[in-house]
Backbone:
């Protein structure tokens, strides 16, 4: 520290305003597109602001409205189901994939890129592809009927629960490559020597996976669990596209973000209520993050 | 013989032939699961109007491959305009992030100034905000700037991502301070030090955030869906949703539309994947 102080007295480091010029654009964006909208969301949640007009203070009316909003109940139920399926599948399968593509084999780059393709594709594209495959007359039903597994086509896109699970399976499929990459960068830190020593001692691949790989990436696994939990609450595009923007039969296959979008524009628009839902979303995503912070602290 | 053995051991990290076979088999299975849906969609998009696309056993090779579906889609909806709009938004977002995140990242990593801790704290605080939770207020802001239904309105909020500023700061921090010191002694000012001394050291991170910014802008759906309403002026993702609502009974056309959106991004990624995976290995993605 004293060295640098001496240094700066000898050579002029920079004009006093240079750092501020450098951070000015980012700070502007930080304030206008992050901090201000966050504060404004809290404010609007207590008003009856509509796309056109409104904006009077209404106290807790928007939050009271949530209590008997059936659609919100469906959305939250769907989020819980999303979590129950996605968390176990997306913490384990991508790890297995990462182990598979970790070793250097000829042609591995090709496989890595291919496995990452669903991540690169937009959720809209992927959802439209699944819509076509899961259609009454689509490939999946055709195969199932040809194999005499079912007589009638399964209503993947029109039955409430089948539709939800179709969307969930899409999310899992699209997430495999994403979490695989995160695990891949963590696996680099798991010592190869440990694996070799265990192999010499006669531990098979399964044993080595559970006793060396899994403990080695525990921190990353925890992080990924939280990321998946949060993203289960943030689901939007898959459900929107697979239900054609309607939220499925009776609007029961929707998510909190779909409700927020629904209330953002048009005749149904209610920016105040949408803001209250946004606040709810924020608080819900905060829970897993606080848990992560506590667990990390315990690990020390 | 012994030399060959040694080479093999080196290349495969002492994997047995059996393990190599099992690994390739598993890789092939996962490949089918991840890539087949795209191939199926491509195949559907190339099938002519006379070919039955509802056959019981899926046929991957079209009988008479044709681009007719693509031209038909382009006639029915301004899909070329949509693609141009997506490109414009993506370029604005990538450019904004390269310039804005580099400048701020450098200042926060290498220059000492009053208020830098405050800025850092605020940047970190934004990380816990899910984008969807502020999207309504974001929309109100963009609307009050008079930018609804414009591409600038779509691009603007994402032009400097806070996570990118933090990633660039981390990359600049990793460069040894001695370089800065030496350049200072030589009389280089902050801008010269940023461009000539530090920038070459953060190219890896810069390519990672550029790739992410491009993919993010190209694939984004919720935000352009809220900002854009005029069917003449959509980005590709919103346009595709609109297209699929119009042609529900013709999967060939929807397939052609999805391919128009999918192929460019895959090409971009395939070309740049080397930088992406290198950046990943250097630890660009750590949550």
Residues:
């Amino acid at each position: 520290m004293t060295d640098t102080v001496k240094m700066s007295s000898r050579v002029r480091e920079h004009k006093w305003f240079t750092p501020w010029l450098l951070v000015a654009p980012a700070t502007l964006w930080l304030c206008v597109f992050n901090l201000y909208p966050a504060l404004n969301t809290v404010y609007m949640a207590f008003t009856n602001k509509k796309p056109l007009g409104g904006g009077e203070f209404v106290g807790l009316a928007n939050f009271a409205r949530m209590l008997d909003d059936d659609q919100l109940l469906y959305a939250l139920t769907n989020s819980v189901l999303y979590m129950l399926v996605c968390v176990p599948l997306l913490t384990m399968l991508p790890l297995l994939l990462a182990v598979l593509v970790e070793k250097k084999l000829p042609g591995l780059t090709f496989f890595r890129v291919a496995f990452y393709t669903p991540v690169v594709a937009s959720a809209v594209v992927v959802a439209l592809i699944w819509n076509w495959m899961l259609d009454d007359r689509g490939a999946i039903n055709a195969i199932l009927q040809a194999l005499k597994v079912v007589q009638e086509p399964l209503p993947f896109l029109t039955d409430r629960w089948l539709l939800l699970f179709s969307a969930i399976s899409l999310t899992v499929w699209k997430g495999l490559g994403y979490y695989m990459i995160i695990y891949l960068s963590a696996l680099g830190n798991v010592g190869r020597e440990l694996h070799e020593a265990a192999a010499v001692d006669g531990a098979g691949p399964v044993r080595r996976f559970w006793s060396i790989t899994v403990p080695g990436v525990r921190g990353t696994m925890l992080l990924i669990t939280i990321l998946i939990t949060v993203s289960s609450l943030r689901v939007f595009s898959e459900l929107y596209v697979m239900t054609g923007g309607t939220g499925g039969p009776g609007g029961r296959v929707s998510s909190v973000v779909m409700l927020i979008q629904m209330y953002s524009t048009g005749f149904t628009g209610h920016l105040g209520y949408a803001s209250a839902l946004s606040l709810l979303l924020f608080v819900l995503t905060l829970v897993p993050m606080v848990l992560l912070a506590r667990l990390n602290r315990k690990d020390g | 013989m012994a030399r060959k053995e040694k080479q093999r051991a080196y290349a495969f990290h002492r994997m047995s032939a059996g393990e190599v076979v099992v690994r390739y088999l598993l890789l092939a299975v996962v490949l089918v699961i991840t890539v087949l849906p795209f191939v199926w969609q491509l195949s559907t998009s190339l099938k002519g109007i006379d070919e039955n696309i509802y056959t019981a056993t899926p046929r991957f090779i079209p009988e008479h491959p044709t681009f007719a579906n693509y031209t038909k889609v382009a006639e029915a909806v301004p899909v070329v305009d949509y693609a141009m709009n997506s490109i414009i938004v993506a370029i604005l977002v990538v450019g904004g992030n390269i310039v804005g995140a580099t400048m701020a990242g450098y200042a926060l990593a290498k220059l000492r100034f009053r208020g830098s801790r405050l800025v850092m704290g605020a940047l970190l605080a934004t990380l816990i905000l899910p984008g969807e939770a502020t999207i309504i207020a974001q929309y109100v802001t963009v609307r009050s700037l008079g930018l609804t239904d414009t591409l600038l309105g779509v691009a603007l909020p994402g032009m400097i991502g806070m996570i990118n500023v933090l990633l660039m700061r981390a990359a600049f921090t990793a460069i040894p301070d001695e370089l800065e010191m030496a350049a200072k002694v030589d009389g280089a000012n902050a801008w010269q030090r940023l461009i000539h001394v530090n920038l070459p050291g953060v190219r890896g991170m810069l390519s990672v955030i550029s790739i992410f910014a491009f993919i993010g802008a190209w694939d984004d759906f919720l935000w352009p869906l809220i900002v854009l309403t005029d069917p003449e002026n959509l980005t590709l993702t919103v346009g595709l949703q609109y297209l699929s609502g119009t042609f529900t009974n013709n999967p060939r056309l929807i397939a052609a539309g999805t391919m128009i959106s999918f192929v460019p991004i895959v090409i971009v990624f395939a070309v740049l994947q080397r930088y992406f995976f290198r950046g990943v290995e250097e630890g660009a993605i750590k949550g």
Notes: Chain B touches chain A through 102 residues (CB under 8 Å). The longest helix of chain B spans residues 79-110. Chain B has two domains: 2-66, 72-281.
